């Protein structure tokens, strides 16, 4: 979602900031802007649209100076326009801020400022915050040493809501002030230079030494270094760490889009999810990061899995896997619902929060709600430096590498593999035999090669996409573990092609969905050879009988399916949980090719953000 990059050092700020913003592009945005302090004072340029549009303006009128702030905005309060883009200035035009998060009481604050005679130019909450900080700055004595820092702190004391922000002021030209509450802000420490950014990737090309600000921290950076204060009674202190982030990993290489690159990375990302976590001697899994003793694991009698979007769909597949392998009851809860519910749980309930980014506001809200009530919360997460990673009691990292494309692909398959590992671990502590455990391990180890086989069908899947390019609507059907895959296939199709698509449990067809079937609406049937195969074929025939085109995802060697489906994509023969992982790959490719054929912006679909940091 919104991204912040700020720089103070020896270099020209503009190129450093623009490069940082490009690294944050994947988070999704609809405008961008930059402000630089120099001998002339404060200069601001902002532009709606892609960063290239901002760059075009800056190429003609560059901003010079070695202290600057910049932002990519994803509109919440106020439309995506040049004027609503960040940085926002105060009434005097001498102070500029960039801000992520939401100022909940901005309406009240705005009214107070209007009553004092201020006039606003935008409908944004951030402009109100800029005016408020500017107001406090102007009421402080001009010779106050920490004037900007004090003004920021005074203003934030009046604020309800969330923020990651950076402020600069032309009357205190050698410094910037950053603050955080609920929205990530990272300090980067380089040689004769410092950074503040919402995501380490924005500064990874310049420094690997970082510190994550905690809620209520306020950091002031000048040429001599940084100083930390807190708006709470917490003891101040920064934990400085070295990040292991290869900025090159986020390059596209020979692929035309990040999404395709990430789909093709799955044989490796899956291997990274299970490497070192399989115990062949005991036919089980080992997940040290859970921070749970064998006794704790045996005592778990219920699991609640929470997350949003693709992560929730992985959780749904995980529910079936854990229940079938470990016989532990599992419930799936949309994080946005769970955080507001009073879901009955007891101390033997384990909460699993699933998130690629580890920064999804609803998922963080759900985990905080569960922890507030005293429950143990574990995370399944890709971003090791995320808020979720810090706020959970333990968990499992995906090690999938950066996922840049807005549409999640490799993170989904890694999440499902991790659920299989967890199910194996819990199952082996309950009733699964050693030979059953070995069978699961073999199936997990076979996945990378099997996914490679599926990927070889990319050209065939593209032809299928060509055939259905005029569809306005699509249906995806699956049962049991394949139901989550149907939901995920439909989500991929919707978000990057803008074709309406629905995912359904196959048997629901006759309870209403069948009314949508006609010759122009393709149905994708997930029907590998499993216990539900015959029932699936039955439903598939009901669609064919109504002239609905059918694309089947079926098990290799199944020739009979040719009598029923118009188009077939084969996946290797595998146990149910592994077949679920294998089935999603053709659906990712189907959506990808369709989006390319339709000329969509594949990696940055309209209105979407990679990391949804607002509730
Ligand atoms: C879909 C997609 C979203 C995310 C969701 C949760 O392709 O990317 O539905 O899955 O916003 O994001 P994380 O996993 O970062 O919490």
Explain what the structure shows:
- The model has no long low-confidence stretch (mean pLDDT 93).
- It contains 18 helices and 26 strands.
- It folds into 3 domains: 3-248, Glutamine Phosphoribosylpyrophosphate, subunit 1, domain 1; 252-452, Glucose-6-phosphate isomerase like protein, domain 1 (Rossmann fold, 3-Layer(aba) Sandwich), CATH 3.40.50.10490; 457-615, Glucose-6-phosphate isomerase like protein, domain 1 (Rossmann fold, 3-Layer(aba) Sandwich), CATH 3.40.50.10490.
- The chain has 615 residues and is an alpha/beta fold.
- It is globular, with a radius of gyration of 26 Å.
- It binds fructose -6-phosphate.
- Fructose -6-phosphate binds at residues 307-311, 355-357, 360, 363, 407-408, 491, 495, 611-612.
- The site of fructose -6-phosphate has 16 residues, from helix 9 and helix 16.
Major sheet summary line: 8 strands, antiparallel
Major sheet strand order:
3-2-4-1-10-9-11-14
The residue ranges in which pLDDT falls below 50 over 5 or more consecutive positions are none
User: What are the bound molecules?
Assistant: fructose -6-phosphate
Shape-level CATH architecture of the largest domain: 4-Layer Sandwich
Q: What's the total number of strands?
A: 26
**CATH-defined fold name of the largest domain:** Glutamine Phosphoribosylpyrophosphate, subunit 1, domain 1
Q: What is the rounded Rg?
A: 26 Å
According to CATH, the homologous superfamily of the largest domain is Aminohydrolase, N-terminal nucleophile (Ntn) domain
CATH classification, class level of the largest domain: Alpha Beta
**Structural class determined from secondary elements:** alpha/beta
**What's the helix count?**
18
What is the number of domains?
3
- How far apart, in Å, are the first and last alpha carbons? 12 Å
- Percentage of β-strand residues: 15-25%
Overall 3D form:
globular
Q: Mean pLDDT across all residues, rounded?
A: 93
How much helix is in the residues? 25-40%
């Amino acid at each position: 979602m919104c991204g912040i990059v700020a720089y103070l050092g020896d270099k020209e700020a503009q190129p450093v900031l623009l490069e940082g913003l490009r690294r944050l592009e994947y988070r999704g945005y609809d405008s961008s802007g930059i402000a630089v302090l120099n001998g002339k004072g404060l200069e601001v340029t902002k532009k709606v649209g892609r960063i290239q549009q901002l760059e075009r303006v800056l190429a003609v009128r560059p901003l010079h100076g070695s202290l600057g702030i910049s932002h990519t905005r994803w509109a919440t309060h106020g439309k995506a326009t040049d004027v609503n883009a960040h940085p926002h200035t105060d009434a005097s035009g001498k102070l500029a801020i960039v801000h992520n998060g939401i100022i909940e009481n901005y309406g009240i604050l705005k009214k107070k400022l209007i009553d004092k005679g201020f006039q606003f130019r935008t409908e944004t909450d951030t402009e109100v915050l800029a005016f408020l900080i500017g107001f406090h700055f102007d009421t402080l004595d001009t010779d106050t040493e920490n004037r900007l820092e004090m003004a920021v702190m005074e203003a934030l004391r009046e604020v309800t809501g969330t923020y990651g922000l950076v402020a600069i002021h032309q009357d205190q030209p050698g410094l910037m002030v950053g603050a955080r509450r609920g929205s990530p802000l990272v300090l980067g420490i380089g040689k004769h230079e410092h950074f503040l950014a919402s995501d380490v990737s924005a500064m990874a090309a310049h420094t690997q030494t970082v510190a994550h600000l905690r809620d209520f921290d306020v950091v002031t950076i000048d040429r001599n270094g940084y100083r930390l204060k807190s708006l709470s009674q917490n003891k101040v202190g920064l934990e400085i760490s070295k990040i292991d982030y290869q900025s090159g990993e986020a390059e596209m290489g020979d692929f035309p889009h990040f999404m395709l690159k990430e789909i093709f990375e799955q044989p490796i990302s899956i291997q990274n999810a299970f490497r070192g976590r399989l115990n062949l001697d005991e036919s089980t899994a080992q997940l040290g990061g859970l921070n749970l003793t064998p006794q704790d694991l045996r005592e778990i009698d219920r699991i609640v899995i929470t997350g949003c979007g693709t992560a929730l769909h992985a959780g749904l597949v995980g529910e079936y896997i854990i229940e079938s392998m470990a016989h532990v009851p599992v419930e799936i809860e949309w994080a946005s619902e769970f955080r507001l519910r009073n879901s009955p749980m007891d101390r033997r309930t384990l909460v699993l929060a699933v998130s690629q980014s580890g920064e999804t506001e609803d998922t963080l809200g759900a985990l905080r709600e569960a922890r507030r009530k005293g429950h143990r919360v574990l995370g399944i997460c890709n971003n090791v430096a995320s808020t979720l990673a810090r706020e959970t009691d333990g968990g499992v990292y995906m090690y999938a590498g950066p996922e840049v494309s807005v549409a999640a692909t490799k993170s989904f398959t890694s999440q499902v593999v991790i659920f299989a590992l967890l199910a194996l671990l819990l199952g082996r502590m309950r009733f699964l035999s050693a030979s059953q455990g070995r069978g699961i391990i073999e199936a997990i180890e076979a996945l990378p090669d099997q996914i490679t086989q599926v990927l070889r069908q990319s050209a065939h899947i593209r032809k299928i996409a060509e055939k259905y390019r005029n569809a306005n609507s699509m249906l995806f059907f699956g049962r049991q573990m394949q139901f989550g895959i149907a939901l995920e296939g439909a989500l991929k199709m919707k978000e990057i092609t803008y074709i309406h698509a629905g995912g359904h449990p196959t048997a629901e067809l006759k309870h209403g969905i069948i009314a949508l079937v006609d010759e122009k609406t393709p149905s994708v049937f997930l029907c590998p050879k499993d216990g539900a195969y015959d029932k699936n074929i039955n439903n598939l025939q009901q669609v064919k009988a109504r002239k609905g085109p059918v694309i089947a995802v079926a098990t290799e060697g199944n020739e009979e399916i040719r009598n029923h489906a118009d188009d077939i994509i084969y996946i290797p023969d595998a146990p149910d949980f592994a077949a679920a992982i294998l089935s999603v790959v053709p659906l990712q490719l189907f959506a990808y090719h369709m989006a390319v054929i339709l000329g969509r912006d594949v990696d940055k679909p309209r209105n979407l953000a990679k990391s949804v940091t607002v509730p």
